[in-house]
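URGENT: need a sanity check before tomorrow's submission.

F., can you look over the Aldehyde dehydrogenase (NAD+) record below? I want to be sure the sequence and structure line up before it goes out.
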Amino acid sequence: MRKPPAMLDRMEQDMLIGGARVPALSGQRFETRNPATGDLLARVAQGGAEDVDRAVKAARAAFEGPWRRMKPVERQRIMLRLADLVEEHFEELAMLDTLDLGAPVSRTILGKGRAGALLRYYAGQATLIAGDTLPNSAPGDVLSHTLKEPIGVVAAINPWNGPIGMSVWKAAPVLASGCTMVMKPAEQTPLSALRFGELCLEAGVPEGVINVLTGLGDAGAALSSHPGIDKIAFTGSTGVGEKILHAAASTMKRVSVELGGKSPNIVFADADLDKAVPAAAMAVFANAGQICSAGTRLFVQRSIHDEFMARLADYTRTIRVGDPLDPETQIGPVVSAPQMDRILSFIDGAGQEGAHTLVGGARMAGAGLDKGFFVEPTIFTGVADDMTIAREEVFGPVLCAFAFDTVEEVLARANATPFGLGSGVWTRDLSTAHRMARGIQAGSVWVNCYQMLDPGVPFGGYKLSGFGRESGPHHIEDYLETKSVWINLD
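Structure tokens as predicted:
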């Protein structure tokens, strides 16, 4: 796993448009670097507005061609072949993400099962798309039914914190529905998306159906406002999501957004602490805290608060932070120097506001970490609900802990946030579990577990965490138009 992928033999990486790897029309490129070492990985084509236009045109041409009329079983066959190829090449894809993002290879390789499962789940959905014959009360003998048709060209704008997983998650419903796509990966982590696009072609996806446009924020903005885009699927920050909604408004594009979070993780006194302690740590520290649904607000019932926090601190000190290529590493660096600086500014601000640092609280150095962007797993206690560290999404390995007394109290405090993406509840009491599941305002409630995902179960947010759901039996509806047909039989 330590050998660099063959793709990186090419220092210059071009975008994928219309089935071909092509440079930006401007000739400009941007660098992507290894956040663990600072080493240059590649110089990537920096697409601009003209490149957005040609990518959208390629996707439109592919949509108007035979693709949208292909038999469902043929699209299914291609997707199943793609699932096989993604699994066959997943060590390479995982290594690209480890080098590009800094996530430990022990973590990125775990995405193999999920990637294959997503593609196979949506391959099944490709053969289930159907309209309805509907009764009506019109006078005479009139038949009414609906048709389900692919919406058209989709813009998929992806975040940097789970590159290959996001590429698959965005592409699967597009392929199943008969839509086409222009995918814009984050500029911090473009490499695995380009390789995934190549695998799509190898699987038999027609040229132009999946296009990968690399570039900076201006390329994403141009894609969001392009009149040739019919739907936008965005995962990322709430601030950028708001800009995308404004950009989409003038052409009334269909939009689904999965945005930020400040998720509560709630531990009751009757919880199994042997399970809850490590789960509470990794609910926030996994992927160096760079997960939108991370359990960054930990509420512990007062009678066990001190014991739980002592155990949590001990566990956190055992977490192995270091070289992402070492299979024993649990946490790698954050994605970039600006992200590291942002996290450290939150940590400094928490101390100034009066929070107590229980564990961590600094940049990590020494032991070969000096050139990377490593932040210690950090736990704050003595945090007030109105502190900045308790309200804003840090997107780093930073946990705030609070004590609580009653169900009613913790529900009110857990919901006192503009976000609502994930949440956790730890209890052995069935009544408490159900009360919490009903009361928490979030798209996912994990009881005695955290961050569980499955292709058949919807994922998405309440409030500022977005709208629309990914995965589950109804996700594909976001990629379909419903047409009503009336036939007068008289």
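My own read: The longest helix spans residues 72-88. The first strand starts at residue 12 and ends at 13. If you see anything odd, call me.
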